[in-house]
Amino acid sequence: MIKDKKNIKAEIEKIREDLHRHNYYYYEKNESLISDVEYDKLLKKLEELEAGNPEYKSKNSPTVVVGGGLKDSKFTKVTHKKPMLSLSNTYNLGDLEDFDKRVKRILNKDSIENENTQVDYILELKLDGISISIHYEDGRLIQAVTRGDGKVGEDVTENIMQISSIPKYLKKNVSIEVRGEIVLPLTEFESLNKKRLESGKEIFANPRNAAGGTLRQKDAVIVGQRNLDAYIYYLADSEELGFETHIESIKYLEYLGFKTTKIYDLCETIEYLGTRIEYWEKERNNLDYETDGLVIKVNNLSLYDELGATTKAPRWAISYKFPAKQVTTKLLDVTWQVGRTGKITPVAELEAVEVSGSMVRRASLHNYDEVLRKDIKIGDTVFIEKAAEIIPQVIKPVKELRDGTEKEIVPPTNCPVCNSILEKEEGLVNLKCMNPHCRAKLQGKMEYFISRDAMNIIGGAKIVEKFIELGFLKEISDFYELHLKKDELEKLDNLGSKSIEKLLSSIEESKKIDYSKTLYALGIPFVGKFLGGLLSRESKNIENLAVMEVEELLSIDGVGEKVAQSVYGYFRDEDNMRILKKLKDAGVNFEIEEVDERAHLEEFVGKTFLATGKLIHFKRQKSGRTRECKSSH
Ligand code: IVH
User: Fold this and answer.
1) Mutate to test the pocket of ligand 1, among 23, 82, 91, 131 (most ligand atoms within 8 A of CB)
2) Residues contacting ligand 1 via CB (< 6 Å)
3) How far is the CA of 621 from the centre of ligand 1 (A)?
4) Regarding the domain delimited by 326-433, which CATH topology (the fold level of the hierarchy) does it fall under?
5) How far away, in angstroms, is 326 Cα from ligand 1 center?
6) 3-state SS, residue 468
7) 625 falls in which pLDDT band (50, 70, 90)?
8) What number does the ligand 1 atom closest to the CA of 234 have?
9) For residue 199, how far is its CA from the centre of ligand 1 (angstroms)?
10) Which CATH superfamily includes the segment(s) 89-321?
């Protein structure tokens, strides 16, 4: 029991220390060492531990104080008139329903029918930037202060003066405090990083990191060059100033000359809030600034006092975080995959984590050179992301979280499947298995051959694996001999005669596929979909292509040395030619379908036509390598 308590105390202290460190990096260095979801998980765990063990509660716990500090500050310190609080985060509609109930419960402590109270909410974007408090006296900007630790911030007035969207004088001579977010527009962020890359400077990790770094510049001229922007979302003491709703106060801010996002959706029910959340989850990608979520605020200002605040966040507002594009998890191990060309790819085996709505356990590490360049080690906390929203990739390790137990990733010397010695191809970063009979390569080749963009044969990886194992498939041409083994195939477990029928008819269908696709399906190194199309048009049929010399191939616009050598080499390999012959004999199409235009033309010679309506199918062809289309008009 005593030992348990000791452990709990140590666990609480460890989480507090971790959270303080994350706060320091996030607020002072504008960097994230872990994703928000992971941060909130730690925070929740700490809250639970503290609630169950009240003797270990502390006034300085990250559950009580607003994160951030002023450790490295070079600026004059200013105490906020009212603390700059943070917001509690939610991640789903259920959490928002709880928030709604909580609000109504507080407002109706004495009433039983609290659930039926009408509360209007305003939905705004949560800008992912640096928060700022700006003071005006008699309509003139006098001071701008960062959030700092929430109580004391840094005076960055001189830098704020450089931001053109922040008014220096207001339309009315009022004395007010406004709060908002300093952001770097995405277009500015991209061009800034491009320039930094060109001049050999380290690039900023994200727009927030760039905005924070810029705002804390000691040289205001640099701030002026960076084109920061500012959106204001809060007018302090708005109720005292005579406003009844949050929307009214925002409209007044716009009237005074402030830039706002102009996005404030009035939501009378949580259901409607749900539909707006769905809308913004997609629409946020069309904005020129980053948002990491939405902020839901009670609209009626007269309720704010009653709702109050905790030491960290107001109870009249909450944030809804969008699913993160990048998340952090642990790299548990690295395995090595063999592709159809023999390329060896390191694959990250991860602690399961949710990314953009699905659980991810594995991610690509591309190649060993990339592992070295990014300095990734086993045991690291790593950022992962779904590239183009599909295949997860490891972006970078979080070196700050290393504890010395991380292990180097050692590349294999032998093929993990066939055990033959691996080679590193001259000039290429990839390790390769050179064994032509390697089972993994065979499997990859077959899967590629039948894929949708190639021969489009139904079946998939499982069938291929099974057929290789049973000896039905040894090379790609074997697909066209499967019909001879129909009886045997039908007897296989889990494969009824119907599915074999479907498979065989899809194989039969594949014989008619375009020449560009059959060319692509062969898996000639470097010949993807585009080159499959180009080479098919240029060669018209595979016999022509097979005899082309390197020079001839090089004379094709779009074909470089690497491709020319690869295509030339492919047709000089006896094994490839043997397989090609089998495919051709089986009836696979290896020529471009040509329409004999002259035959059609002869029908029209000497006749006059009157054309009416829109001409939609024929376009005058551009001159160049394509056939010319002469017109007498
Ligand atoms: S309202 C007491 N509205 O989010 C909270 N904050 O996580 C008053 N933020 O510190 C802030 N967009 O820097 C509010 N539309 C918005 C916001 C917003 C971004 C930031 C703000 C705040 C942080 C809390």
Assistant:
1) 131
2) 85-87, 124, 126-127, 131, 181, 233-234, 295, 314, 317, 319
3) 56
4) OB fold (Dihydrolipoamide Acetyltransferase, E2P) (2.40.50)
5) 21
6) helix
7) very low
8) 1
9) 35
10) DNA ligase/mRNA capping enzyme (3.30.470.30)
Q: Going by CA atoms, what residue is nearest to atom 2 of ligand 1?
A: 85
Is residue 520 within 8 A of residue 456, CB to CB? The reply is no
Half-sphere exposure of 10 (CA within 13 A, CB side): 6
* pLDDT of amino acid 2: 55
Indicate which residue of 126, 312, 343, 445 is catalytic.
126
Tell me the fold of 439-585.
DNA polymerase; domain 1 (1.10.150)
Please enumerate in sequence order all residues whose Cβ is within 8 A of that of 432, keeping only pairs 6 or more positions apart, or say none: 341, 342, 343, 344, 422, 423, 424, 425
pTM over 0.90: no
List pLDDT tens digits, range 350-379. 999 988 778 899 998 988 888 998 899 999
Q: What is the CA(149)–ligand 1 centre distance, in A?
A: 14
pLDDT at 620: 32
Give helix 207-215 / helix 186-198 axis angle, nearest 10°: 80
CATH of domain 2-72: 1.10.287.610
Residue 126 is a catalytic residue: yes
